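Z., the sequence and structure:
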Amino acid sequence: MKDIFEKGMPSEQITIAEILKDKGYYTAHIGKWHLGQMEGSHPIDQGFEESLTMMGGLYLPEDHPEVVNSRIYNDPIDNMVWATGRFSASYNKSKQFEPSEYLTDYYTKNAIEVIETNKNRPFFLYLGHWAIHNPLQSLKSDYDLHSHSGNHGLSVYSGMIEALDRSVGKIVDSLEENGLSDNTLIIFTSDNGGAGYIELPDINKPYRGWKLTHFEGGMHIPFLAKWPSQIKKGTRYKHPIHHTDIFHTIAAAAGAEVPNDRKLDGVDLIPFVKGINKSIPHETLFWREGHHQTVLHEGWKLIKSGRINKRWLFNLKEDPLEKVNLVKENEDKVSELEILLAKHNAEQAETLWPSVVDSPQLIDKHGGQEYEEGDEYIYWPN
């Protein structure tokens, strides 16, 4: 088994930062980077001219006087994050150092510095906030705003959201103050839904499931964009889109060419959002985590958990909350989606790093609730 620092995104992959840098954009990265630290896979090897990289998982030292912590002592994932977490950053491959303040605010301050330093030229900023990932740590001042909840963990979680919300506001204000707002595309999104292992029951309500599952609670996430000169205020877009669309959308916004020597998923979303393109971005979307695989096709969603040979079929147009499994009543539809998934799988490259764990995850209960006979679950390969 290779050390984690010997793994990373192969250097022959082309990032949006490389595309934009070639177009004359200044490119900066701040925060999370889960694509490797090995030579060739670091942000500054992948098109970013500067990178303030997260090297640990703590928002402040656990014993800091301004922090309020919420630990889940009986959960192995939460214990792992606390045990391995450090309050640490690195700048352009420098030695690690401690940030000067609460991590979310620290990233925000540096993001605003990028905006103000580069306001007179085209720039691209990828801000990968760690918030609101565990370990659950809030500034005491933010925690106090939400302590009335009566649930310590929820108050900490809410305090973390408070800091993230403050960050977005300050960044938007900075663009406004520097006269950049109308001609700047901002995309705000999350990488997954809320996690069951932090033991907060309603964070994905009304959807079923959690992070690590392919139910809507794990995948139906916020995706917002602001570009006043191009996107009409208040616009809502109802058709499914995917993170793979961000690459093409940003490239098109910058007038940059995407590589034509490889197959790339994703589309430029702006013509769809503006109503210029009347079709839908995707008839079919896929998700794969080892044997845990899902296909969404024309509103029909098939979820598979291979280890237990379990399948769920939902018509999201009629049942967006995934309450009724239609597998038995719709064998033809299951077969149709299985064929689409098999074709997609056949087109994929072999994974460089196979999963090393297979962990059961309850769908309708969080990690602090006991399994009972009949409870539905999947296995999460990682």
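The longest helix spans residues 152-177. The mean pLDDT is 95.

Let me know what you think.
H.
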